[in-house]
Amino acid sequence: MKFSRFFTGSLLVIGLLVAALVFLMDTDGVQDKKGKLLKDLTITQAQTEVRAADAESIGRGKYLVKAADCYGCHGDPKNGGALSGGLGLDTPFGTFRTPNITPDKQYGIGAWSQAEFKAALRNGVGRKGEYLFPVFPYTSFTKLTDRDMEDIYAYLMSLPAVPAPDKPHKVKPPFGWRALLFFWRELFFTVGPIRTEPARGEDWNRGNYLVNAVTHCEECHTPRNFLGALKPNRSFSGNIGGPERQNATNITSDVKTGIGSWSIEDIQVLLKTGMTPESDLVGSAMKAVVRGTSKLTDADRHAMAVYLKSIPPIHVDLPPPKLASQSR
Predict the structure, then answer these.
(1) Going by fewer Cβ within 10 Å, which terminus of the chain is more open, N or C?
(2) CB 228 within 8 A of CB 221
(3) DSSP run (H or E) holding 96
């Protein structure tokens, strides 16, 4: 009886020892399985976070593309308003055609990497290293932050691809020779984002960024020299024969010839509705601008108004642009 108990107890102990030994020998396997499980969970979580980040990035990019009114130049009515390009931009140097910026791999920017896209905005350089014509406002877009460029790229890449080939430019020689842009860039192009001025306050700095980088107001409202570069001493003072050969108004704080008599609220109303303090509606190319600024938040329109009111006055009496009632 005692032997039986001893034998049974011994078997139990031996069984436990064997089980423990097997467990210890398989610890690596258990750890591997546990590690794989944790890894799978981490990957799943990371993928979820990436998808959420992508959705947020696309949303921010859409906001910026609307604000910049990229559709105004790159939208093609024949393709349902898609950003497939083709619009002719008439200049003193000839007619430039806007490119396809849908994610089509053959005709659009679908094969462009994010770095290549950012190089076009920041440095005015195409995918093959060629200088881009400054009719594309990279002179303003260079001031965008890296994050905003990445968000714009994310949004454009989320759109349907449109296989529409680019139309050729019709530019007078020698202005179509890209190599000559090296000298133009040396004289008139400064690379880099806007620097904040903390003493100016948050609204002013946000407005500065929106006006000078995102909505690139100077490209229309600043006069140009004989080589097509903006005149820095005449910023925002108006441009005779601007877009669509219409005069772009003086938007400095000059009381008589600019918007110095306008209140911040007046400017906000115009940016949202296109209505001036005189209850006229803007016409010509400014309608496209308002199409973009009307999509901004109230806070961003307020910031733009704060910045515009701070622009030093320049007295330049220009013929007025066409209003909506005169454009019909």
Answers:
(1) N
(2) no
(3) strand 94-97
Q: Is 226 found in the same domain as 163?
A: no
Q: 102, 162 in Cβ contact below 8 A?
A: yes
Q: Which two tokens stand for residue 147?
A: 């994050």
What is the distance between the alpha carbons of residues 108 and 257, in angstroms, rounded to a whole number? 42
**Which of the four pLDDT bands, split at 50, 70 and 90, describes residue 81?**
confident
Provide the residue range defining the domain that includes 295.
194-328
Residues 274 and 292 in one domain: yes
47: amino acid identity, one letter: Q
Q: Are residues 63 and 173 in the same domain?
A: yes
Per-residue pLDDT tens digits for 9-67: 444 444 444 444 444 445 455 445 445 544 454 445 544 545 565 999 999 999 999 99
Q: Helix crossing, 202-209 with 298-310: angle to 10°? A: 90
Retrieve residue 142's tokens. Answer: 């260079």
205: its two tokens:
């700095």
Assigned domain for 27 exists: no
What one-character-per-residue DSSP string does 98-130 give?
Answer: PPP-SS-TTTSSTT--HHHHHHHHHH-B-TTSP
